[in-house]
Structure to design on (964 residues):
C-alpha cells in the first residue's frame, strides 16, 4: 500500500554501501545551479530543527549584516543546550516509545506523579540517544553503553543507582545484572516493544532491525503455507527452520529474537516483573523457538553480544545517516540521494561515529538548504510537528499547554498530539505530511492560549523586563509606539523585517483597532495580534 | 504522492470545495459517492456463531440449538438468543456479503488487527478506511473520523481525525479546550475570534495564491494550499459544531448517532467505530460470543435505523442507500472447543460488508480442516483449483473498488472479488 515504501530505502542503503567501496556513483547537479533558501530562512530552519526555537534578534541582525555569519551560527547550534531535546523529538518518530500509558503505573511503584512517570518511561531510550549526541560520544554507545538515563521517578521505580537527593535526568547504571547493551538494556524500549510466548520476541527483533539497521522484515511479503498444521507448535517451528518461504526471514530474525528473553515479561501487570531484568529467562529460547542466539550466522550468548554485533554491521552507520537525513529533510531518501548519503556517512565515520558532525553536515547540505520548487528531492517548506510548535511558542511566550501535569501537545489520552499531526507510537506511526483541519485548530487554540498568557505576564512587568511587548503600554487605548511594536512582533514571531509604513504593519494596526473596537480592552487586542501572528502559515511551515 | 487533482483541490482555487453541496454535486451513489462506517470488534470473534454455517463439518464444534437460516442468497447461523442478528439479516440480506475464510497469517491480536485493517504488518501501512478517505478526501472537512477503535493512518494521516476520548475535537472547535490549561487564559470574545479568523484566513489565502503563482505543484504550494483549505474547513466545522452528535462513549448506539451526523452533514466520508464487547473467548466461548454478537447487531440495527431516517446527500433516498457498513474482527477462533469450553486464536476469519453496491451472498468458505477455500475472483464462487485465497489484501482491494477507487493503483496484482459487488 505504501507506494514510497522501504524498498527504496533499502536500495539506497545498498547503494550507499557500494558507494563507500567505489565512490563512483553519479550524484546531483552541481550546487551552484540550485537556488537556495535565503541565509535568514536557512538560519531559521536550522535553529528550529536543532534548538526548537526561532533565531534571536541578535542572530537575525548578524546575518542581515553579514550573510556568511549564518553558517558559523548554525555550526554552533549542535552545542546548544536545547540540541538534546531536539534529538529526542526528531527520533521519537523512529523509536515510537513515547506512550501515554503502560501496563504498570506510577501508583504501582508508590509514586504519585502519573503523567511524569508515563512520560519518563518512553523518554528513557531517547535520553540515552540524546546524551550520546550532546556529549559527543560515539554512536556505537547506543547499543553498547553500560549506562542509561533516569530521572527521580525512574530512579525510584527502576533498579538503578540514582544519586541520593538528586533530581532530573542523570546518567545511571542498572543494578540488576542486565548486560551492557545501551538502549537494548533499557526498560523504556522493551515496555513499548513487548512480546509473548507465541511471538517469541520476533516482533522485538524486527524493531531492533528496523530502528538500528533500517531493515524492516515486515516490508517483505509474508508467504503463509497451508501445508503447516496451525494447531501444532512443533510443526510451525519446523516450518520456520525448513520451509523456504519462512526461512528466508526467520533464519536471521529468530536468532536475534533469542537474545531478548531476559526482557520477557510473564506478568505485564507486575511491577517487579516489568522493572527488573531476568537473567534466569535468557535461555527460554530452548523451550520455545529452539533457535540459539546469533547474528547472521555469528553465534553469541547475551544481549551485549547482540549490541556489538549490530554496531559492527556496515548497515549500522548507514542507517543512522539515513535517519538523520530523513528527519531533517522531512522526506524519505531516494536513489538520487545516494551520493549525498555516502558523503554524510563518510562524515560520520571520519568523526569517529559522533553525531554532531553528521547533524552539522546535513543541515549544511544542498538537500536541506535548497529552495527548489518543483523537485521532490527538495523541501522548500516543511511542516512543524506538535513538539516543535510547542517549543517555539514556549520560547516566545513562556507558555506550555498543560492540564493537571499532562503536556497536551505531547499526549493523546488527554491531549492533542495526534490532532496536531503527531504520532502515538501504536496506531499512528507517521507524522502528518501536510496541514489538516485539526492541525490548524490546534495551532489556533495554542496560539490564543499562549498569547493570552504572555500578555498577562508581561502586563505585570516593566518594559525592560519584557521579551515581546517592550515598546507599548498594554493597557493604553492608543500608543505612539504601536507601529514599532508591530514591527518587533513580526520580527520575533516570524523573522520578518518590515517597515513601519509597510502593508504588514498597516494590517496589524487595523486588526488591533478592530479588536479594540469590539471589546474595548487594549490587552486583549494585543493578545489577538500576537495570536494571529502565531497562526500565520509561515509560523508552522518553515 | 498526491495526484494532480488532489493538488489542485488543496490550492487556493480548490478551497471553496468545503461545503456538503460541493461533493453532493460531484458524487453519485455508485463508486466514490459511497460513504463507509467501519465497525471494529477487537479480540477475535468466532465466525461459526453467526457468519459461517459449518454444521456439516465434523471438525467444527458448532453451537447447540443453532441452525442455518437463509434470507435470499445469504445464509447465516441463527439462534433464538440472537433476534437482533436475525432482524439485521432479514433487513439487509439483499445487500450484505459475508466473506468467509479470510486468511490472517498470524495469531497475535496486534498483528492480525493490522493485517485485517491494512493487509500488511508494515509500520506505515494505512488502513482501508484511511485509503478510502484519502481517495476523495479533499472534498470533506474531516475525511475519516475515528470515533472509537483502532486506526492506522500510515501516510494518510492528513485525512484521518480522532475525536479524542476526552472531547478534544469539540473542545478545539468551540474553544473550551482553552479552559483546560493549568495557567489562566482569557479566551477571545466571539466577535474578536471571528475578526481574527477573518484576518488569518485572508493572510493564508494570499500566501497560498502567491505560492501557487510561483509553482502550482511545488511542495511549498501544496503545503500552503492545504493550510488554507484546512482553515476553511475548520471554519465550516465551527459552524456545524452544534449539529454534530459528539460522543466519546463506548456505546455503539451513541457512536452510530455521531457517525450518522458526520455523514449526513457531509463532514466525513468514513467513520470508524468500535463495538466494545468481549470477544477473546479462550473460555466459555458460546455464551461470550452469543452475547457479543447480539449486542453488536443490536447496535448495527440502530445504526441502520438512523441511516434510514436521514436523507441521502449523494442521490440516494436515504443515507442507508449511500452508506456501506463494514464489520470485522482481527481473527477467528479454533474450530474445536478447548478444555475450558473456549476457543483459541485461529488465522482464518470472516467479515461482513453491507450496503449499496454489495451483492447479497456469501463469498468463500472453509474446507474440512477449517482452512479458508479459494474463490473465483470474477464470480465470487468457490474454486479450489484456480481461485484466489481470500487474503486480507483481497478483502481490502474489494473494499477499495466498492469505494470507487482503482484497487490496482494502490495494490498492484491483488485480486478483487467482483462477484461480491453489484
Amino acid at each position: 500500500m505504501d507506494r514510497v515504501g522501504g524498498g527504496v530505502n533499502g536500495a539506497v542503503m545498498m547503494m550507499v554501501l557500494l558507494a563507500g567501496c567505489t565512490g563512483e556513483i553519479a550524484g546531483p547537479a552541481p550546487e551552484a545551479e540550485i537556488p537556495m533558501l535565503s541565509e535568514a530562512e536557512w538560519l531559521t530552519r536550522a535553529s528550529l530543527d536543532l534548538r526548537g526555537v526561532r533565531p534571536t534578534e541578535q542572530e537575525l541582525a548578524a546575518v542581515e549584516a553579514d550573510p556568511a555569519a549564518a553558517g558559523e551560527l548554525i555550526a554552533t547550534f549542535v552545542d546548544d543546550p536545547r540540541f538534546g531535546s531536539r534529538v529526542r523529538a526528531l527520533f521519537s518518530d523512529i523509536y515510537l516509545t513515547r506512550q501515554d500509558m503502560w501496563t504498570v503505573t506510577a501508583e504501582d511503584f508508590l509514586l504519585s506523579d502519573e503523567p511524569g512517570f508515563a512520560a519518563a518511561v518512553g523518554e528513557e531510550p531517547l535520553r540515552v540517544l540524546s546524551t550520546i549526541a550532546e556529549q559527543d560520544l560515539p554512536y556505537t554507545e547506543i547499543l553498547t553503553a553500560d549506562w542509561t538515563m533516569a530521572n527521580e521517578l525512574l530512579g525510584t521505580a527502576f533498579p538503578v543507582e540514582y544519586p541520593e537527593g538528586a533530581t532530573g535526568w542523570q546518567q545511571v547504571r542498572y543494578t540488576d545484572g542486565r548486560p551492557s547493551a545501551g538502549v537494548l538494556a533499557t526498560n523504556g524500549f522493551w515496555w513499548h516493544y513487548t512480546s509473548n510466548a507465541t511471538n517469541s520476541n520476533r516482533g522485538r527483533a524486527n524493531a531492533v532491525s528496523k530502528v538500528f539497521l533500517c531493515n524492516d522484515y515486515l516490508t517483505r511479503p509474508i508467504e503463509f503455507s497451508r501445508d503447516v498444521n496451525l494447531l501444532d507448535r512443533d510443526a510451525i517451528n519446523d516450518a520456520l527452520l525448513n520451509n523456504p518461504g519462512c526461512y528466508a526471514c526467520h533464519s536471521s530474525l529468530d536468532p536475534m529474537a533469542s537474545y531478548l528473553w531476559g526482557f520477557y515479561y510473564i506478568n505485564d501487570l507486575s511491577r517487579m516483573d516489568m522493572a527488573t531484568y531476568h537473567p534466569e529467562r535468557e535461555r527460554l529460547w530452548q523451550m520455545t523457538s529452539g533457535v540459539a542466539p546469533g547474528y547472521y550466522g555469528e553465534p553469541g550468548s547475551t544481549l551485549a553480544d547482540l549490541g556489538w554485533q549490530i554496531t559492527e554491521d556496515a548497515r549500522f552507520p548507514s542507517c543512522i545517516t539515513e535517519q538523520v537525513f530523513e528527519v531533517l529533510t522531512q522526506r524519505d531518501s531516494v536513489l538520487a540521494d545516494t551520493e549525498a548519503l555516502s558523503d554524510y556517512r563518510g562524515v560520520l565515520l571520519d568523526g569517529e561515529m559522533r553525531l554532531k558532525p553528521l547533524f552539522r553536515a546535513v543541515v549544511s547540505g544542498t538537500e536541506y538548504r535548497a529552495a527548489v520548487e518543483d523537485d521532490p528531492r527538495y523541501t522548500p517548506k516543511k511542516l512543524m510537528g506538535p513538539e516543535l510548535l510547542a517549543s517555539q511558542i514556549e520560547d516566545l511566550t513562556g507558555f506550555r499547554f498543560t492540564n493537571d501535569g499532562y503536556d497536551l501537545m505531547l499526549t493523546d489520552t488527554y491531549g492533542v498530539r495526534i490532532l496536531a499531526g503527531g504520532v502515538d507510537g501504536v496506531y499512528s506511526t507517521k507524522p502528518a505530511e501536510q496541514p489538516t483541519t485539526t492541525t490548524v485548530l490546534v495551532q489556533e487554540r495554542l496560539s490564543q492560549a499562549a498569547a493570552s498568557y504572555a500578555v498577562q505576564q508581561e502586563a505585570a512587568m516593566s518594559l525592560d523586563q519584557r521579551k515581546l511587548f517592550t515598546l507599548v503600554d498594554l493597557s493604553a487605548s492608543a500608543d505612539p509606539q504601536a507601529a514599532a511594536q508591530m514591527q518587533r512582533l513580526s520580527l520575533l514571531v516570524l523573522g520578518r523585517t518590515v517597515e513601519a509604513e509597510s502593508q504588514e504593519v498597516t494590517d496589524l494596526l487595523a486588526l488591533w483597532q478592530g479588536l479594540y473596537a469590539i471589546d474595548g480592552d487594549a490587552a486583549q487586542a494585543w493578545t489577538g495580534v500576537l495570536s494571529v501572528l502565531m497562526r500565520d502559515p509561515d509560523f508552522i511551515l518553515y | 504522492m498526491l495526484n494532480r487533482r488532489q493538488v489542485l483541490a488543496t490550492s487556493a482555487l480548490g478551497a471553496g470545495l468545503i461545503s456538503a453541496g460541493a461533493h453532493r454535486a460531484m458524487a453519485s451513489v455508485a463508486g466514490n459517492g459511497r460513504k463507509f462506517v467501519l465497525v471494529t470488534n477487537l479480540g477475535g470473534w468466532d465466525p461459526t456463531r453467526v457468519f459461517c454455517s459449518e454444521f456439516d463439518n465434523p471438525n467444527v464444534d458448532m453451537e447447540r440449538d443453532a441452525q442455518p437460516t437463509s434470507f435470499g442468497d445469504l445464509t447465516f447461523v441463527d439462534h433464538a438468543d440472537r433476534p437482533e442478528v436475525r432482524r439485521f439479516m432479514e433487513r439487509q440480506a439483499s445487500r450484505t456479503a459475508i466473506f468467509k475464510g479470510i486468511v490472517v497469517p498470524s495469531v497475535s491480536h496486534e498483528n492480525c488487527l493490522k493485517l485485517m485493517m491494512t493487509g500488511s504488518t508494515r509500520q506505515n501501512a494505512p488502513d482501508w478506511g484511511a485509503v478510502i478517505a484519502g481517495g476523495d478526501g479533499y472534498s470533506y472537512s474531516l475525511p475519516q473520523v475515528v470515533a472509537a477503535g483502532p486506526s492506522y493512518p500510515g501516510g494518510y494521516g492528513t485525512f484521518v481525525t480522532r475525536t479524542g476520548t476526552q472531547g478534544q475535537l469539540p473542545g478545539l472547535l468551540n474553544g473550551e479546550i482553552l479552559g483546560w490549561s493549568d495557567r489562566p487564559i482569557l479566551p477571545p470574545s466571539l466577535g474578536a475570534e471571528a475578526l481574527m479568523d477573518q484576518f488569518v484566513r485572508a493572510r493564508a489565502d494570499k500566501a497560498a495564491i502567491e505560492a501557487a503563482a510561483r509553482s502550482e505543484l511545488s511542495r511549498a504550494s501544496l503545503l500552503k494550499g492545504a493550510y488554507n483549505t484546512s482553515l476553511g474547513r475548520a471554519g465550516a466545522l465551527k459552524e456545524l459544531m452544534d449539529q454534530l452528535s459528539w460522543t466519546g462513549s463506548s456505546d455503539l448506539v451513541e457512536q452510530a448517532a455521531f457517525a450518522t451526523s458526520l455523514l449526513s452533514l457531509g463532514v466525513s466520508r468514513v467513520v470508524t467505530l468500535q463495538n466494545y464487547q468481549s470477544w477473546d473467548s479462550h473460555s466459555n466461548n458460546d455464551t461470550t460470543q452469543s452475547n457479543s454478537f447480539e449486542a453488536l447487531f443490536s447496535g448495527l440495527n440502530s445504526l441502520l435505523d438512523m441511516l434510514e431516517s436521514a436523507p441521502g446527500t449523494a442521490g440516494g433516498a436515504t443515507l442507508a442507500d449511500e452508506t456501506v457498513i463494514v464489520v470485522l474482527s482481527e481473527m477467528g477462533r479454533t474450530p474445536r472447543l478447548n478444555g475450558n469450553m473456549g476457543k483459541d486464536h485461529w488465522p482464518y476469519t470472516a467479515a461482513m460488508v453491507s450496503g449499496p453496491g454489495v451483492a447479497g451472498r456469501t463469498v468463500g468458505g472453509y474446507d474440512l480442516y477449517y482452512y479458508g477455500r479459494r474463490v473465483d475472483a470474477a464470480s465470487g464462487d468457490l474454486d479450489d483449483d484456480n481461485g484466489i485465497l481470500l487474503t486480507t489484501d483481497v478483502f481490502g482491494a474489494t473494499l477499495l473498488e466498492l469505494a470507487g477507487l482503482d484497487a490496482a493503483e494502490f495494490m498492484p496484482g491483488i485480486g478483487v472479488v467482483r462477484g461480491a459487488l453489484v
